[in-house]
Amino acid sequence: MEFQVNVRIKVCPFYLERKAAEWDIKKTNYCSRYISSIEYVREEDSVCISVTAPDHLYLTNNYIVTHNTLESIATINKADAFPCLVICPNVVKINWQREWHKFTDKKAMVLTDSVRDSWPFYWQTSMNQVFIVNYESLRKYFVRRITKTEKWTLKDVEFHNTIKLFKSVIIDESHKVKSTATQQTKFCKGIASGKEYIILLTGTPVVNKPKDLVAQLGIMDRMIDMGGWKGFMLRYCSGPNQASNLKELNYKLWKHCFFRREKSKVLTQLPDKVRQIVSCEITNRKEYMDAERDLIDYLKRYKEADDEKIQKSLKGEVMVRIGILKDITARGKLKEVIDFVKDFQENGKKIILFCNLHEIVDRLMVAFPSAVCVTGRQNMQEKQASVDAFQKNPKTDVIICSIKAASAGITLTAASDVAFIELPWTYAECDQAESRAHRIGQKDSVNCYYLLGRRTIDQKLYRIIEEKKHISNAVLGAEDNIQTNIVDMMANLFETNEEEE
Length: 501
What we know:
Blueprint: H1 17-22, H2 68-79, E1 84-88, H3 93-103, E2 108-110, H4 119-124, E3 130-134, H5 138-142, E4 143-146, E5 157-159, E6 168-172, H6 183-192, E7 197-201, H7 213-219, H8 228-236, H9 246-256, H10 263-266, E8 273-280, H11 285-304, H12 308-332, H13 334-346, E9 351-355, H14 358-367, E10 372-374, H15 380-392, E11 398-402, H16 403-406, E12 417-420, H17 427-434, E13 446-453, H18 457-467, H19 479-500
Parallel strand pairs: 1-3, 1-6, 2-3, 6-7, 8-13, 9-11, 9-12, 10-11, 12-13
Antiparallel strand pairs: 4-5
């Protein structure tokens, strides 16, 4: 049996100029599948999307499968419960903003010092309907004063009247408010009180014991359904392990306020590997802008050079300055990277970190004293000891790897989460690094996070890697060819950005 397959796409698939010049999109018979009719069948409880494939799997842009962020956005949007406040970890604020803009016509604003007092104006003038803030900034934007200096409770907190504007509150990674003693739990409870919609999102609502649910249920005003605080503690937090009547508790949660899809059931629908982009703000913006202007100057001179020798010389200078920008970006986003990793630790999950700079490795080792590392500074025995500790020791939850030293030959299947703090030059190196977790012995879908500095060279490099994946084939040729391609593409990207601005 033989099949002939013709593929037609709207994007030119060729990299070589002579082939690209010959490529031409066909104007007719472009689509081979059409919607012939839409007919009413029946009414059912809704799901996000169901397709006719046996496993019902579908993917959205950038390989992201549907998730609870989208479900909460859809809920608030359908209910028209605006303005909405999203409380989330610092590192995902920009992602939340993008999700609102991608899936709805609502405008989301990340709260900053520039709008500390004026943000209600943006709602009142219909410019923004969603406001996003991290846990650590709740006091700055919404608390007028706390009347006691020590041992204060929620009753001692005086909030700004502006919190009454919100009709809905979404609290992401709500396990962060599992303790009633923390100030962010008290602030979340006060802000969420009386709202029409209160949605808490987390993969681990119970980190240790049923008591972890008390604060989260209190924020949702659901403790009454569980018998009140005293009733909950007596019924579900008794016994030697501070856990009792768990089947009954599970039933009540599902009945009143809980929806969950277990990992074992979801895994059959997930791809083997999922890539996600996480935007990070950098703390050294001025240093970055100065270095970027220097790079742009060299790129212009490179593009305008007539002499081949001069252009080749400038090419090397450009690569040096691209490296400088990468280094500045890596240092600038380190604070948010550390917050990102701490979320995994709090969830009891292991994570693999990939980077290039020794400085970044050293600073991460200071931030995470229990971590191990695999870099070019170690001998074979030391590298293997780090790998063994990560694979076998439950307390070793972070391994910091040099992309060059650890992207091949080692197995790190103890983790299903991989994060890139810095980017390599090629797609092949990304794939190799991801494969440290994505290999035989891995039971879970592997999540690959690319921590990109917002409005930095990170985003341009990632775009090059994604759009020109076949640049990895240049590894078979001269090293200079790889650099030439990157320099040319980088020049085009900066040129395009200037025209758009």
